[in-house]
Write a structure and sequence with these properties.
Blueprint (H helix, E strand, L loop, with lengths): L33 E3 L4 E3 L3 E5 L22 H7 L6 E8 L5 E3 L4 E6 L2 E6 L5 H5 L15 E3 L5 E3 L9 E2 H7 L5 E6 L9 H18 L5 E5 L2 H10 L5 E5 L14 H11 L3 E5 H6 L2 H8 L3 E5 L6 H10 L3 E4 L2 H11 L15 H23 L5 H15 L2
Amino acid sequence: MALKAVHVSDVPHFDQVPDNASMAMYANRCSIGAELGWKAFRASKFLVIGHRGSGMNALQSSDRRMKAIKENSILSFNAAAKFPIDFVEFDVQVTRDYCPVIFHDDVILSVDKGTVFEKRVTELSLSEFLNYGPQQDPQTEGNCLLRKTKDGKIVNWNVEIDDRLCTLEEAFQKVESSLGFNIELKFDDHIVYDQSYLTGVLQAILHVVFKNAKERPIIFSSFQPDAALLVRKLQATYPVFFLTNGGNELYHDVRRNSLEEALKVCLEGGLQGIVSEVKGIFRNPGTVKKIRESEVSLLTYGTLNNVAEAVYMQHLMGVEGVIVDLVQEITEAMAEMIKPPAKPRAEATGTTGEEGKEEEEGKVKEEEEEEEMDRKPQFSERELSFLMKLIPQLIDF
């Protein structure tokens, strides 16, 4: 299916969807670990979600952890599953022959006879896509896989543990079945898509999901507001979250430019949650309460989520979960910082009647207060200094 470029003002906002786009034939399911309903999403605990598996690849980073395992790969997903996380987040696009594949970048870069070239993932067939990088047959060498960094440099995609590119169906089949999938519906920010293209892409993804998901928890998310609204209308099984930079970047589509606009999209379109860049939350903390009061869930992403103290602050603010790169470090830190309340330890005093009841209740309350103090993290001077500097730096654009 070819892309069709149209003017922004001509793009429909999908108040109605064609009859043949309906997926209502599928029964609702309740997933393990969270309440996944049509009207609301409420996590049973603070969620930690692995970014592109066990973490994205930052190929120019001096931190080896950011280059340990190929992102968006089966190996990365299963590596993340070894830790007490709830979901892995990954990016799904659809190839020219309608196969959903997992890949973050809009284009694949490679080299042929010394010349670097790029091809859109959506313009490749499945076999062409899978021919890049390591191959299933170790005797076969795939096409070289390069990547463009944020500053425009083109580098070899070198990681310590490499893995094959994979399809969405392979992820369902080969990844630990109890691990939830946060499926980002990936679209190019620089293209305006028409309704028929979005519908075809989303139906191809939904077909794979409903065929393979079984009891696996699923969340859909997208930066593309019309795609998020449409997938919400195409199925009534899994929650849909709207991804936003939270005002850190500006786009032609005003719906993408603030947390307030994101909340408006959710309330008008029946979406269950927002996934915001974490700086947008710290710059506009009052919005968190407004989002929660609107019964819309809130998750965050961004490099600050690799700082345990910043994650704990979000927990205190009412954020329901975070997408992180340093899965092991953050899960361990949160286990220490966010400890479940212990059962009351008050013992019988031997007194009876109202006096005994009041005395027992007083002891229970006192012990609960002590346990609450114990659950609060004890920050070092270095960590306190970081926290004191964090908010002013974020507020300063």
